[in-house]
Amino acid sequence: MTMYRNLILVALILTFGVVSLGAYVRLSDAGLGCPDWPGCYGSITPHLAAESINAELATRPDGPVSHAKAWKEMIHRYFAGALGLLILAIVMLAWRNRRETSAGIGLPVLLLGLIVFQALLGMWTVTKLLKPLIVSAHLLGGMATLSLLLWLWLKERNRNAHAYYARVDHLRVGALLGLILVVVQIALGGWVSTNYAALACTDFPMCQAAWVPVMNFEHAFTLHRELGETASGELLPLTALTAIHWVHRLMALIVTVYLAWLALRLFRTPGYAGMGLMICMALLLQVTLGISNVLLSLPLALAVAHNAGAALLLSSLVILNHRVRRR
Q1: Rounded CA gap, 196 and 189, in Å?
Q2: Measured CA angle at 137 (ends 135, 138), to 5 deg
């Protein structure tokens, strides 16, 4: 079973890398670097597709296709493909050793199904020309994969542990609510990113020199529409982008206050001070990165780090929820 646990750990680390790479591809405008799927102009590498890429560059030198963007997109696909194979291997080992595993076969099979759906979302991201709903769902699918792999690893890692944790039923609801709030905030952050609304407000803590700027919520949160357009096909107004950004900020305030309160409860619970510190550090990192992205006009490195920070904060809440449910 050591190999099984090691494979889960490798898949977990790789998933974190794939999530970060996906953010890098999206934020560097390389999502259409290869306009087909799963290859690049029908080839396995951008090098073999050089002729087609050059022809596209000759036609549209400022378009979404370039050699650098094609490599970014394909490297992300290579890593995602490797992750799919790893999870397939995990499922096969879980089935072979199903009487010896803590999680059984159900969670690995669920992960495999999620990976298949993620592959479909990756294809639709390209073929549907970065439709915000699909790109946001792809981001959430990556975070869900990370969370389920982490949960699986925690169950298998602790299967032979004899450590006893005191009953903390009073923390269960609070931990679950914290996890739900973080998931909602990640979804809102993904909606900001996929609609390119990160710079709709370039000041902080106010937005466009107002606490409550002019906003259009109807167009902002219409899900079934194309990138940069309203449901009727008109140009998405700045007021809609402002609404997307402002709601993400408001939710960030709610999450910050709630997680700070939750961490305080953890500090006061014997054996959980370390968990409280972990959540505080992840939260502080995320808040700092979020504010820095606004004030520094979204530098690529900080924007990618903000996505990675979201994964870390989510992971800290997954670990907490796993622990409060142990005996």
Answers
A1: 10
A2: 65
For residues 248 and 191, give the distance between their C-alpha atoms in angstroms, rounded to a whole number: 9
User: Which 3 state secondary structure label does DSSP give 314?
Assistant: helix
Report CA Rg, the chain: 21
> What is the structure's pLDDT at 99?
81
**Where in the sequence is the domain holding 216, given as residue range(s)?**
165-327
> In the predicted model, is pLDDT for residue 80 greater than 90?
yes
Q: Are residues 218 and 297 in the same domain?
A: yes
Q: What is the pLDDT of residues 237-271, one digit of tens each?
A: 999 999 999 999 999 999 999 999 999 999 999 99
d(CA 178, CA 255): 8
323 & 188 share domain: yes
Cα 154 from Cα 164, distance rounded (Å): 15
The SS3 call for residue 205 is coil
Cα 122 to Cα 137: distance, rounded to the nearest angstrom? 10
Active site residue 100: no
Q: Are residues 317 and 186 in the same domain?
A: yes
Helix (H, G, I), strand (E, B) or coil at 68: helix
Q: Looking at the structure, tell me whether residues 196 and 151 fall in a common domain.
A: no
DSSP bridge partners of 235: 229
Whole-model pTM: value is 0.95
Residue 92 and residue 180: Cα distance in Å, rounded?
31
- Neighbouring residues of 171: CB distance < 8 A, sequence distance ≥ 6: 265, 266, 269, 272, 324
Q: Are residues 199 and 305 in the same domain?
A: yes
Catalytic residue among 51, 73, 156, 226: 73
